[in-house]
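Submission sheet (multi-component)
Chains listed below:
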Amino acid sequence: MAERSFKKEVEQLRLGAGEVFEGEGILAVTKALLQAGVAYVGGYQGSPISHLMDVFADADPLLRELGVHFESNASEAAAGAMLAASVNYPLRGAVAWKSVVGTNVASDALSNIASGGVSGGALVIIGEDYGEGSSIMQERTHAFAMKSQMWLLDPRPNLTSIVDMVEKGFELSEASATPVMIELRVRACHVTGSFVAKDNRRPPMTVGQAAANPRRDTDRIVLPPANFLHEQEKIQKRWPAAIRFVQEQRLNEWFGPEADEIGIIVQGGLYNTLNRALELAGLSDIHGASRIPIYCLNVAYPLIPDEVNAFCAGKKAVLIVEEGQPEFIEHELNTMMRRADLQTRIVGKDMLPRAGEYTGAVLRDGVIAFLRQWAPERAPVAPMPAVPEPELATTVPQRPAGFCTGCPERPIFSAMKLVQRELGELHVSADIGCHLFSILPPFHIGNTTMGYGLGTAGASAFKPEGKRAVAMMGDGGFWHNGLTSGIGNAVFNKDETVTIIVDNGYSAATGGQDILSSKAENATRTTNNPIEKAVRGLGVTWARTLTRTYDVARMRDTLKEALTSPEAGPKVIVAQSECMLNKQRRVKPALAKAAREGKRVERDKFGVDADTCTGDHACIRLSGCPSLSVKPNPDPLRQDPVTHIDDSCVGCGNCGEVAHAAVLCPSFYRARIVTNPTRWERLRQRLRAGMIAFLQQRQARALAARSF
Amino acid sequence: MEITLPADRDRITIAILALGGQGGGVLADWILEVANRNGYDAQGTSVPGVAQRTGSTVYYIEMARRGVAGANHPDPVLALMPVPGDVDIVIASELMEAGRAILRGFVTEDRTTLIGSTHRIYAISEKSAPGDGLASSRRIVDAAKRRAARFIGFDMDEAAGKSGSVISSIMFGALAGSEALPFTREMFEEAIRHGGKAVEANLKGFATGMAQAQTAATEADAPAIAAPEPTTEAGRAIKARIEAMLPPAAQPLAIVGAARLMDYQDAAYAGLYLDRLAAIRALDDGTDDWRLTAEAARHLALWMAYEDTIRVADLKIRATRSARVAREVRLADGQLLSVTEFMHPRLQEICETLPGWVAAPILRSGWLRRRLETVFARGRHVETTRLRWFLMLRLVAAMRTRRRSTLRYAEEQERIEHWLDLAREAAAHDVRLAAEILSCQRLIKGYADTFERGLARFGTLMTAARSLAGRADAAQRLAALREAALKDEQGTALSACLSEAGLAA
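Outcome: structure written.
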């Protein structure tokens, strides 16, 4: 089960012709796939395309009705390989992932499918995680499209364009026997809007029917001599076919006046930002009535030479708005100008930044610079930059991402910090997942991160002469890649690395999807496969499963044991506790309901006594819990803020355990609130409270007597 | 030709800066709903990414007036991110996020209505400093007033708490109250109803937010120290003594200090405090409005009320404390409360509570100490709502009457005297340096390792103070060293500051 329920979105998948779909861009894609008669869908979750996977996972009954196969693939490599179903059969298939990382993982399969070609339309939905809000290395998926020769669609970021392009993408794929990528940037995935729906189409052939009647064609298999044939075919047949299709279907678009001395070529996904930049420069309006010709590349690869040459001919200069680097399109445009012997000057990264996101302000300034050089009479004066506020800049603090309130990963790193106090600094090879936030304050733990499930492999060069290296891995990463690349590799090479596998029951960082080791029973997936069993199956002999990460002292002692044990071979600690975000979503409504029904319900909340807290904040440096904060000191004598636990506390117990394990201070307390207590509890409480109140009153009288 | 944006254009841009879990997405949905239903084409987007885990997120909304029927306008081309200088409305869910909006250029004097909550959610860098790492709120409020066309700021978190709602509904109400959007109150409320979740609570929050936005709220300054009034004979005598002896600037602090020590020990102990204070007052020439005496009043009281096992037990079992906990957890009728303390008294702390002639031999002996240490090596879960543990702590608290015979008492009084000696020595030549020496007590805090670290660092500063004495910049240097010592746990900043001052680290 994912973090949120997508019931409402699933209902929208049933809309018929003429009805209006409303929602986010990435959800529009799900409907577009069904309208296009897709036969199978797969992928791997990750921002910004997680919702696509979640909606399909929740839409099982509808998909069954339509005869569409959906799979939550184990990795992007598995998803990419699934496209093999479109090689021999006229099956439309789509897979989705976060890119560029997912494309990296899938690239082996993608190279193969792109080499042999497809007969059914194969679509890869790319969540291009680039620019603000991105959590990965800043690279372009464009390079993969070019090197494997897969076509790359980059639609204008509105729902109608995106939906149209999904359907055209399948047709293009079939027309050119080539897999097609459709690229959606982060904001386009989350942009709201609407489009007029069409009826869903059952696939003309289902995956079941295909499997029942196998067909084969050795020419489609990447093996000599067919592999050499494929390369020729790519250039001689598939490429021209694609160009013909794009041209005939007019997938690219033109805006603004026909004739001008200058023009702008833009990637489809950047069109809206460009129009805003032009509007701010007084050269367009809110309805896109540009006063400069624009050639909009909804197909970013391949370029269409006839269209490019016709657009550039007769112009002094053309600005290419291409985000990221290297500037592949700009290079090719220049080549095209030379081949066609056109004298048009291609202006690109000499006026726009070579690296980084093309925001509205960047494009506004870039367009103005372009105009100033090539059409100065139309160039407005660049706006005055805002007066800088250096004092303000030093005042406003950064807000690095961190673990959620009550996160079960926090105590693991609290324990690791305590171990470092005893054994000295450790080399920690981090992994992809929420646990990667350990590198940020307040933990400052982790040296490198090499990719999903590669934490252990990232430490494999370190053969200890004294101190062992520590590797982190999440359960998501473990099943994605870590089992073989990490643990298998470590066993085979007799590594000494200590691997901590965080087993929180979900692929949590991507939105709480179920995985092999999830505790939840899932009607459509197999869960409850223990990680320890898997690593022992690979040959790990030193493995421990801790079933409560919040036991900081035990966590610390186990880690210390793993680091110092005389036993040879890799050590694996499986640290289990449920992802708190998902647990709260599960438990909170249930508890509220039970309390309403008069059932006995316990709730824990932690607190800090302000009069014994001295304001050193050592507890915060070992925790960083959002609910563990500070407030101005209520004591007029003390000057430093006191620690304070706010109402968002979920009572996980970490602060108390840390206070104990690190011998911090006696200020923490746990308040346990019992709603609808039993009769015996009430009686016992009355007796206790009565005695205590009596003693407290005596004490208060004595205090009053000696007080000021 | 200069870029000037028309004042009455057909589109409105809104940036929402919120933190994970504050309902920024819900607020954005309401705004989209109200706009799309009332003659506008509205589009929203966001970059949640990892920011949903405690970071800050920008939600961006654009809306364009729908063309008149039959005017044949194509759909508007709406942008997906705010451009600095082109944002009509900024809504910030927290004060520093308002500051961040200003820094990012979203807030401009010509067009931006800035609606911001003035409450604080502290960032990790602010919370984790060993001293006071809190950013200046005043600076942000000043900038908001200067940089926005209009600033509507009030504590929306508090308003949410009072109205039993959530901050997103307060912000939505404040947006309606700002009248920056061309929609009526009913239209806004309809959007909440359409959302269908917690409608009643959200409407209540909306009404509160709207009302508060329309009555310009002003920020109150932190109150000055209010000294308590005496309630006993001894208290009145002490107050009279303070008023006779100390300059007005130091009186409130001294009264709070003396009251603290009567609560901590007894009137005689407060008398000792005033004797020590008098000796400092005698050396004060009134520099910086009697800062030396005021610092002494503050820090001497804090030191003399050091946190020993007796004090902690005493504070944990008071009736006022039980009431405070019940209030903090919002205990309702019919609910039961049990309270568990996380205490970790080590052998060290146990011995310190014993008379020196008992404690010293234990701490000195090798085998006995090791045996006993294992007994006290684990933390205790002390359930103070159970009679057994309550009585145990009551017993420890009752040792107050014997505090003067404990090992810890002897140690602390010796340290205090050394510190005062140093301050008095310095005061003879340099009153400012003496005041800074007294302020260094701020480093001594916490328990166990934390306490020992603080004490060691305090020792370093006292050594530095001796070396600095006589230098013209001695006071200034010592103050800088103290600030550095409170910067980080490892002492990196302090080492740097020491070598900068030409002192050995």
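Remark: Chain A touches chain B through 124 residues (CB under 8 Å).
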